[in-house]
TrEMBL record:
Keyword terms: Copper, Membrane, Metal-binding, Oxidoreductase, TPQ, Transmembrane, Transmembrane helix
Coiled-coil features, chain-numbered ranges: none
EC number: 1.4.3.-
Native source species: Mytilus galloprovincialis
InterPro entries in alphabetical order: Cu_Am_Ox_Cu-bd, Cu_amine_oxidase, Cu_amine_oxidase_C, Cu_amine_oxidase_C_sf, Cu_amine_oxidase_N-reg, Cu_amine_oxidase_N2
GO molecular-function terms, A-Z: copper ion binding; primary methylamine oxidase activity; quinone binding
Membrane-spanning residues: 15-37
Protein known as: Amine oxidase
Stretch list, region Disordered: 153-172
Length: 800
């Protein structure tokens, strides 16, 4: 039997065991509780905007069977259109597979807008919706005298008739045709074969590469410089084709060789050759020169193609932060605050329709604020880049990108980089050198964006000055597209502010256009890398702004800012003078009067207004919108010289013309080659000098920037400093800032403004401040893995 001491020890052990068991049980229960609470909390965190939708967040992306009057051509309409065209035996059209330069075929089709009066009658007076029609461009290469024909076909989707395009000459010279698929592919193949036959061995010795059977050292003839007749001095269709090394990215690996190809006639011919700083008549002349001067000609090694090559966009160098941390992101905690149906957008007080022209790119129509139309049309008209250089490839490089089809080049926007991940993405549908419709995904994105600064604010801290704070975040709705024209990427934004203002912004990025560096290029470019330079150039952008302020009877005036020198009656010195600012208003009565060139000596406000509609009768101020161009650039090329007539819209930073259905665009599909006799000569819009008082007015806004490339443009030009924009700003249009009605504001003030020591009231107008949601998962990587054609060409056989 155990002694008392042993029993006491046993008792203490049992007690300790019981206590430990109880503690363990408590800890277990606590752990279970924590897990349950964590699980419960996790379940409560939802995806932002996933709750049941109310007034906003309704997104319908289906292609409508009854599209609006502004919707670009639908797939169904294109199918009906092509069926009709192929049934018209007199047109003698061949299918896409049989397209050749000497055949007749449909180059492209796009929406043909009805007359503005008929559209306004339908929209505003409940008239009949005008029939939808298509503008069709046909290349008639099989005619005895080949030409370009444009016809209007309708009504869609099942056309029954066609007529000549009233906005074009009956017959357009065949030489003005845009770059076509058959011609582009055929001429490049011809040039590549003929050059290789004569100079293939020379290329291996001089450029360390081959045009055929090249393995990892491939050369290619790809980039083009179209030559207009005013540049060549003869009515022929010609293009310089450049030689470059096939490496990422080939634009930054040009070689000192190119050929001038004559595209007229049944067979393409090489008319001139540029090599090693000189012009030659034939390829044989080049070979003879090379054999006689082998030892003195610079040999160029093919680049070591790897991830660190200067021309690639692979990450390299020491990261500024490592390991990497994620970028800040924006979320919409209550979901999207806009609606979309049939390319019609509703956002806060804004409404508008949008679409994509294959030629000119983005187009917006019927833009309304608080249900009042501000603009009938707001659209890109043309992008142009004029280069300079010593070699013909750069010296003659005057590009008007409408010829390359701006709208077709807008596709593949990447969520999280090009646009926020939660943006709404839209496709665009086209018919270009095809038998039917095709679509490009992610051509537009639409998103709301917090600008990171107040739209308005004032902080009165001092007791003497009132003690309050009132402010409102600046959030905008942005419709964005990005057009990639070979090497340059143009980010185009249409931005809608809550106070009735609009901003139209263009930002350039992408690869600079380069040349093989020689000392003769020093006036036109800096040497950016071994054997590589990029030439000075000017980007120019033209937009159409058809403002309808309180109707179509508008006026244009400038508020001229001046100085005055008057006696200073407030001074004790009787001879004192007072010099100060003043302004005066100048009504422009004709189109020539309204052609505006910026002058620092005469600053002005540019105003479009409705004379007999006032903001407040007691104030007697006409309702106006101000055009503010923050992207002005002077075109210093002399008027009428070279290709300048093709961009006569760039002579003024703003032109105001009377609206005409026969003047729908400032440029044309043919502008790069028609400088001698432009199909659309914008200067004629001004020179007929029509009266513009109380008329339907159109503003044509031009922005631009000179670019002298520098080493930081490698590998691609960054966007800071390349941003251009113009604004449409309400000016005496509203009695006060219309955004004062927004609930997305905050006011902070004392409960008792008569006491120094007092508590405060915080008024957020019922807008929740807490956010218990997570952004929707970005599934883009999975989507492009399953469907690579969303981001890269998987079919081939097209130059678009």
């Amino acid at each position: 039997m155990a002694d008392p001491k042993s029993r006491r020890s046993l008792g203490r052990w049992r007690l300790s065991a019981i206590i430990m068991a109880i503690v363990s049980l408590v800890l277990f229960i606590c752990l279970i509780a924590i897990l349950v609470m964590t699980h419960t909390r996790k379940k409560k965190i939802t995806t932002c905007g996933s709750k049941e939708k109310g007034q906003y967040g309704h997104i319908d992306l289906k292609e409508s069977d009854n599209p609006s009057v502004f919707h670009h051509l639908t797939s169904k309409e294109i199918e009906g259109l092509m069926k009709y065209l192929y049934s018209q035996k007199t047109l003698n059209l061949v299918k896409a597979a049989d397209m050749k330069v000497n055949t007749s075929y449909v180059f492209l089709s796009e929406l043909f807008l009805p007359s503005k009066n008929s559209v306004l009658d339908y929209l505003d007076k409940k008239g009949t919706q005008p029939p939808r029609e298509a503008r069709v461009v046909m290349l008639r290469g099989d005619k005895q005298t080949p030409d370009i024909e444009e016809i209007i076909v309708g009504p869609l989707p099942n056309p029954t008739k066609h007529r000549p395009n009233p906005n074009r000459k009956q017959s357009i010279p065949f030489i003005y045709r845009p770059v076509t698929g058959p011609e582009h592919v055929g001429s490049i193949e011809m040039a590549t074969v003929k050059v290789d036959q004569v100079l293939g061995t020379m290329f291996e010795e001089v450029y360390d590469g081959k045009l055929f059977n090249c393995n990892s050292k491939c050369l290619m003839i790809r980039y083009i410089t179209p030559v207009s007749s005013v540049q060549s001095g003869e009515k022929r269709r010609k293009t310089w084709y450049w030689l470059s090394q096939s490496a990422e990215y080939f634009i930054l690996h040009p070689l000192d060789f190119s050929v001038l190809v004559d595209l007229d006639g049944p067979n393409y011919t090489i008319e001139q050759v540029w090599f090693n700083g000189k012009l030659y008549k034939t390829l044989t002349d080049v070979l003879d020169y090379y054999k006689a001067n082998k030892g003195s000609i610079l040999k160029v090694k093919f680049p070591d193609v790897n991830r660190d090559l200067f021309s690639t966009m692979n990450q390299r160098g020491t990261p500024p932060i490592s390991p990497p941390l994620r970028n800040p992101v924006q979320v919409s905690p209550d979901g999207k605050r806009y609606n979309v149906k049939d390319r019609h957008v509703e956002y806060m007080s804004w409404q508008f329709d949008f679409g994509m022209s294959p030629i000119r790119g983005p187009q917006l129509f019927d833009l309304r604020f608080k249900n009042e139309r501000i603009a009938y049309e707001l659209s890109l008209q043309e992008l142009s880049v004029f280069y300079a250089g010593y070699k013909p490839m750069q010296a003659l490089a005057n590009y008007l990108d409408g010829v390359g089809l701006i709208g077709i080049q807008a596709k593949g926007l990447v969520p999280g980089v090009d646009c926020p991940t939660d943006a709404t993405y839209f496709s665009s549908t086209f018919q270009v050198e095809s038998d039917g419709p095709f679509s490009f995904e992610n051509a537009f994105c639409l998103f709301e964006y917090n600008m990171g600064m107040p739209l308005r604010r004032h902080h009165s801290y001092s007791f003497a000055y009132g003690r309050f704070y009132e402010g409102m975040e600046s959030t905008v709705l942005i419709l964005r597209t990005i057009a990639v024209i070979i090497n340059y990427d143009y980010v185009i934004d249409f931005m809608f502010y809550p106070n009735g203002a609009m901003q139209i912004k263009v930002v350039s990025t992408g690869y600079v256009l380069g040349t093989f560096y020689t000392d003769n290029e020093s006036k036109y470019s800096f040497k950016l890398h071994e054997n590589f330079a990029a030439n000075i150039h000017q980007h120019l952008f033209n937009f159409k702004v058809d403002l309808d302020i309180q109707g179509t009877a508008n006026r244009f005036a400038t508020a001229n800012i001046e100085t005055e020198d008057i006696p200073n009656k407030f001074s004790k010195d009787s001879s004192a003078r007072l010099i100060q600012h003043r302004f005066s208003t100048s009504l422009k009565t004709t189109e020539k009067d309204a052609a505006y060139k910026f002058d620092f000596e005469t600053p002005k406000y540019l105003l479009v207004y409705k004379e007999d509609v006032k903001s407040r009768k007691t104030y007697q101020k006409s309702k106006s919108y101000r055009i503010l161009n923050n992207g002005m650039s002077k075109l210093i090329l002399p008027e009428g010289k070279g290709n300048e007539p093709s961009i006569s819209w760039a002579r003024n930073q703003l032109a105001i013309t009377k609206y005409k259905d026969l003047e729908p665009t400032s440029s044309s599909l043919y502008s790069i080659l028609d400088a001698e006799d432009p199909i659309v000569h914008f200067q004629n819009f001004i020179d007929d000098n029509e009266p513009i008082v109380d008329e339907d007015l159109v503003a044509w806004v031009t922005m631009g920037i000179h670019h002298i490339p520098h080493t930081e443009d490698l590998p691609v030009t960054p966007t800071p400093g390349m941003e251009l924009s113009f604004y449409l700003l309400p000016y005496n249009y509203f009695d006060e800032d219309p955004a004062i009605s927004s609930l997305n504001a905050v006011r902070i003030e004392p409960k008792d403004n008569t006491k120094l020591k007092t508590s405060i009231n915080i008024n957020r107008y019922g807008v929740k401040q807490s956010m218990q949601c997570v952004p929707e998962k970005n599934k883009y990587d999975e989507e492009i893995t399953e469907n690579p054609s969303l981001i890269i060409d998987t079919e081939g056989g097209t130059f678009l």
